[in-house]
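Lab notebook page, bench 4
Experiment: in silico fold of construct C2
Operator: M.H.
Input chain length: 220 residues
Purpose: comparison with the prior construct
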Amino acid sequence: MFKRKSLLAKLLAKENITVIREGTRTASFDVVNRVLRLPLWSHMTDDMYDLLEGHEVGHALFTPADGWHHSTVNLGINRSFVNIIEDIRIERLILDMYPGLYFNFVKGYKELLKRDFFGLSDRSISSLGFMDRLNIKSKSRNLLDVEFTAEELPYYELAMSVSTFDDVISACQSIAKWLDEKKEDDKPKLDEKDNTVSDEDGGSSDEDDETGGEYPSDSS
């Protein structure tokens, strides 16, 4: 099955990307070296695998290596911000290109939520900051009730409407400026078990190289 999945990823990506399945803590895509890494968890369903694979193929197709490096290294934008809002964009684009993946995404996220994907078992969504709630709302596919205030709604709509990578950068800058003016800490707090993008040939070496924490252990 895994060999067939690797071939599918290459077909979806329209290039001969390298697909590695190993005991990694995340699914990730290296935008420079064109390497897609997928974790091997126990009890991993087809829908969960298709979600992770489809998401990372979205990065392979739509996330520009030079833009990723420039935004997070040269412009100094919080890498977590770019990851969250770029995820919104690439998931919409990959589902527009391959609409047959839609229900795999819905079912895959539903299964990940059962594994406490967002680390919400000991906290309420309403207590979280804006970026964490934006991330949960965009990925949960309306499976969770996530609310935004009247002040927050324009920034939520800005993030959800991005079409180009330049839009992503502009949205990140606007939201960071707004949060700074509010004196709200702009770094997401959740120990999120998220997919990541990397820039292994030129990325920064600080703690923002990847977002989030580990996926559920094999005992889940």
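Observations: Strands lie at 18-22, 28-30, 35-39, 196-198. The longest strand covers residues 18-22.
Next step: discuss at group meeting.
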